[in-house]
Specification:
It is built from 15 helices and 21 strands. It has 497 residues and is of the alpha/beta class. The chain folds into 2 domains: 183 residues, FAD/NAD(P)-binding domain, CATH 3.50.50.60; 238 residues, Protoporphyrinogen oxidase, mitochondrial, domain 2 (Polyamine Oxidase, Chain A, domain 2, Alpha-Beta Complex), CATH 3.90.660.20. The chain has a 7-stranded mixed β-sheet. Strands 9-2-1-13-21-20 form a 6-stranded mixed β-sheet, covered by helices on one side. β11 and β12 form a beta hairpin. The N terminus is likely disordered. Pfam families: NAD_binding_8, Prenylcys_lyase.
Amino acid sequence: MRQFMYVFLFSFAHVLSESDFAKFDGAPPSKIAVVGAGIGGTATAHFLRQHFGPEVRIDVFEKNSVGGRLATVSVNNQEYESGGSIIHSLNLHMQDFVQQLGLKYRKSVAGKTAVFNGEEFIVEETDWYLLDLSRLWWRYGISFIRLQMWVEEIMEKFMRIYKYQAHGYAFSSVEELLHSLGGSGFINMTRRSLSESLLELGVSQRFIDEIISPIMRVNYGQNISIPAFVGAVSLAGVQANLWAVEGGNKLVCSRLLKLAKANLIQSQVTSIELRSMGEYPQYEITTSSQDKKTSEVYDIIVVATPLQQNVDTGISFQGFEPDLPEMPGSYHQTVASIIHGYLNCSYFGYPDPKLFPFSSILTTDASELFFNSATSICPVNITSGFRRKQPQEAGVYKVFSPKPLEKNELKTLFKSYYSVQVTDWLAYPQYGSTQGLPPVVLHDGMYYLNGIEWAASAMEMSSVAAKNIALLAYHRWNRQFEMIDQKDLMHKVKTEL
């Protein structure tokens, strides 16, 4: 096929410009666009630079702040995380970013967690691990052991992605990626509810209601009907060895852009238009900023922002026949309120706030509860002498709720407060056990990063998707199809060592 193309081009060279001819002659693309500068978009720019080399121009478009759903708010001249706040020790891409970018791990500040059912605390963490373990055993039997073994088995299989990507293998769909890691089992986990899977595993309903449900509420604002794969990723994220970036997780995004030597264009992308067909199509991006419209043509485009109908991207797609498919599903609304004030410990059964021992309160799926969690949070810069505020002191709390808190609800949770800053997020997909997974390839040279969120939404999932799309775009451009959607990759990787 490639030899035929060369003959064709030689015969009709007079109708092609010099730049058109060059891109068929083994040259890299001249311009790549990434739409969105969250962790997914900035990581994509970084990986694209790694694979396509220094000559390619990489433009990253962002209509709001760099960082996307990694964001901070200011309280008394201190910054606090209002978006994605924790990273797991097994998140190898995020760890690698921190090392490459010269960032530091934020100091951890100890704190205890409890689960509130609307009337009382039903699970309470203490300072003694063995006591906590014995209480779990007494209340739930071996459910927590079965759960831990299940999560560890899934994470062990998921970790294969790093080996595959290190060897340069890519996947053209989320289904192909999941299947390469866990076979049909992982695919089925995106189609079965978490509660169904755990009950089949032998985990008790009581444990699901009192432990698993609160974790899903704080992490995804949803209940135990979410798919099992999402649930497993969420449960992995509440284990030990969690960390965050000193100065704020959003620093990873801005630093990745600099490392990639990408051009940040802070304007609204209004349209993406297919301008030329053929083996190497081109696309025109039109942007609007301060009533000024500009257009630019690109060889490759990565859309790193949600395209679901309830997310206002402001982007129209033109010239595609047939039209690009509509993305299924919608994004879930969750509200993060950063509140500076005095926690109402009496509401939780502690009239004397000096006796209140918990820094983080999770909630069960009780109808009368108007919030998902309330946590005493620390600033993104922690000095050596820092200590967490005691409940009798005015502290900074992050409260997750399905809708903005009303005044009577704020007065229920807090004796008094100085400030309330509300971030209304479309933070992650509204999960359903029968949902489909969005495509990765939108067109020959156009890719969609956020589809992976419908398998599971996390910083590391976006980073894995970014690496995959950079590899996929590189291999498809260079017609290295043997590196895409290969079967039996574990065997291939072992034989390559």
